[in-house]
Amino acid sequence: MTAPVEALLVVEDLRLAFGGVKAVDGLGFRVMDGDILSVIGPNGAGKTSAFNCISGFYKPTGGRITFLGQNVTGMRPSAMAARGISRTFQNLRLFGDLTVLDNVRAGMHLVIDQRFFDAILRTPRYRRGEDEATEKAHYWLDFVGVTANRGAQARNLPYGEQRRVEIARALARGPRLLLLDEPAAGLNHTEKNQLLGLLRCIGDLGIAVVLIEHDMGLVMEVSHRVVVLNFGREIAAGSPAEVRRDPAVVEAYLGAEEAS
Ligand SMILES: Nc1ncnc2c1ncn2[C@@H]1O[C@H](COP(=O)(O)OP(=O)(O)OP(=O)(O)O)[C@@H](O)[C@H]1O
Ligand SMILES: [Mg+2]
Asked: Which atom of ligand 1 is nearest to the CA of 229?
């Protein structure tokens, strides 16, 4: 008998309200180990709000989030990150004045054990920690294919490279689950193809990926499964081919187009 496959992330009846606006309204889905799952839906459907709950940036008003079998509902971002949930943002959140390398290292300081007195006194243990962080930062920048000068200020990098630095920063935390909010936004055709390759490489490492994305070409190409949101809840789910021909999905997108 094979052991039951345990879900990495279980989201149940998730709710988030801003005053009268129900941004997330009873959302449920599961992410299995090794999944590449896309979350799609019209603007304002609640995709980013759901990410904000799962990564701890917003406290849900209802429902339950279980990660690696533990109830993590309402935990803070640092606690979520320490448990293995890393994310990127719809609007880039790099520290523009810091170097590329330091941006990636900054992500790791949340998870590397930096004892206060070691840091103040710059003990050998502190320096070893710093060296390790630098080495890891270079490793992940190589992995995502950032070729630009790593000593340059992040703000001076072309936009596509900044996006990859953000992914490197999230990976450097050693996540089991990576949440990417519209990673293809603003990328050109070549950069989108590179991103597709990168997502597959991340999947090959055994890191589960949940992707919010409007680029349907990328979604259809890379996803194992797709969840479709509208008005804060799931309206369809399945393989890319299944959701593409789902009448509720066609309706949601055509409706959105007619309204705009
Ligand atoms: N901080 C906030 N305060 C008030 N309302 C918010 C806040 N964040 C999101 N909302 C509202 O919640 C709803 C869902 O927004 P959300 O940003 O999650 O959508 P989305 O699916 O990510 O959309 P997009 O594709 O445009 O990024 C929208 O009606 C939005 O206006
Ligand atoms: Mg969004």
From this structure: 21
Residue with the nearest Cα to atom 26 of ligand 1?
A: 43
What is the 3 state secondary structure string of the chain? CCCCCCEEEEEEEEEEEECCEEEEEEEEEEEECCCEEEEECCCCCCHHHHHHHHCCCCCCCEEEEEECCEECCCCCHHHHHHHCEEECCCCCCCCCCCEHHHHHHHHHCCCCCCCHHHHHHCCHHHHHHHHHHHHHHHHHHHHHCCCCCCCCEHHHCCHHHHHHHHHHHHHHCCCCEEEEECCCCCCCHHHHHHHHHHHHHHHHCCCEEEEECCCHHHHHHHCCEEEEEECCEEEEEECHHHHHCCHHHHHHHHHHHHHC
The protein residue with its alpha carbon nearest to ligand 1, atom 8, reads 49
Proximal ligand: closest to the CA of 20: 1
pLDDT in tens, the chain (260 residues): 555 567 999 999 999 999 999 999 999 999 998 899 999 999 999 999 999 999 999 999 999 999 999 999 999 999 999 999 999 998 888 999 999 999 999 877 655 555 666 666 677 777 777 788 899 999 999 999 998 889 999 999 999 999 999 999 999 999 999 999 999 999 999 999 999 999 999 999 999 999 999 999 999 999 999 999 999 999 999 999 999 889 888 888 766 555 54
Residue ranges covered by each domain of the chain: 1-84+176-260, 96-174
Looking at ligand 1, which atom is closest to the CA of residue 214?
A: 25
- Lining residues, ligand 1, CB within 6 Å: 18, 21, 23, 41, 43-49, 90
Cα 148 to middle of ligand 1, angstroms: 34
| CATH assignment of 1-84+176-260, among 3.90.1150.10, 3.40.50.300, 3.40.50.970, 2.170.190.11 | 3.40.50.300
Kindly give the number of the ligand 1 atom that is closest to the alpha carbon of 49.
18
